[in-house]
Design brief:
alpha/beta, Diaminopimelate Epimerase, Chain A, domain 1, 4 strands, 57% helix, 9% strand
């Protein structure tokens, strides 16, 4: 119960922390509504959809979550400080495995605040080390960005991240349990009741004697006579 209360308190604290950050002049963390969030308008609709599909398919097949966030700037914070707030709010990755990765791009950040960062969960830090993350950012993504090809850089970076995470050998996603239907839930109960009802009606019919059947016949005749 104490853990549940602490968890709820943490969830309730996130909006308050975001609002406080906005009041302090910090860039607020956007709500997580999709895997690719572009607040700069850099990516076209088809490019966002393509990246979204790649990330969704990877999560479905492998379980690990990868999110992309592009925003103009994190000023006055460094991208490192801002990414921690994003990670606390979005909670990427599976519970108990912590295998989420957030690709954060601040297009207009000055050099002192840095423009790119990978926020990596503990469950994938064995493969996505600081050195490997730096290599993906500088050697895989940055050359595309310098050519103003942000979609190409993100696509290449995501592919490199996925290939690196695969080396962890993490467990795949748990198969979804089929949703119970009405008949699967109630058939074991209804079937015995139907048998009991059948025998009850059969026994009741057998107890009716000849007089009952004759009376029923007379009633049918009298009913017909009223029609005349």
């Amino acid at each position: 119960m104490a853990r549940v209360l602490l968890w709820l308190a943490g969830l309730l604290a996130i909006p308050a922390m975001t609002a406080q950050a906005a009041n302090d002049g910090f860039v607020p963390v956007p709500a997580l509504t999709q895997r690719v969030t572009d607040l700069t308008g850099t990516l076209s609709s088809s490019q966002r959809t393509a990246l979204e599909n790649v990330l969704a398919e990877y999560e479905q097949q492998r379980g690990s979550q990868i999110f992309v966030l592009m925003l103009p700037t994190t000023e006055p914070e460094t991208i490192d400080a801002y990414s921690i707030r994003v990670a606390d709010a979005w909670r990427a990755g599976r519970k108990g495995i912590d295998d989420g990765v957030i690709v954060l791009i601040a297009k207009d950040n000055p050099p002192g605040l840095r423009k790119m960062r990978l926020e990596v969960g503990r469950g994938v830090q064995g493969s996505l080390t600081d050195a490997m993350s730096k290599r993906i950012l500088q050697d895989v993504m940055a050359p595309h960005f310098r050519q103003n090809d942000f979609y190409g850089g993100l696509a290449a970076g995501v592919s490199a991240i996925q290939a690196t995470i695969d080396k962890e050998g993490l467990a795949g996603p748990q198969p979804r349990k089929p949703q119970p239907s009405f008949w699967s839930d109630w058939l074991p109960v209804l079937f015995p009741l139907a048998i009991i009802l059948f025998f009850f009606l059969t026994a009741a019919t057998r107890r009716r004697g000849p007089a009952d059947r004759h009376l029923a016949s007379r009633r049918d005749v009298l009913a017909g006579g009223w029609v005349d």
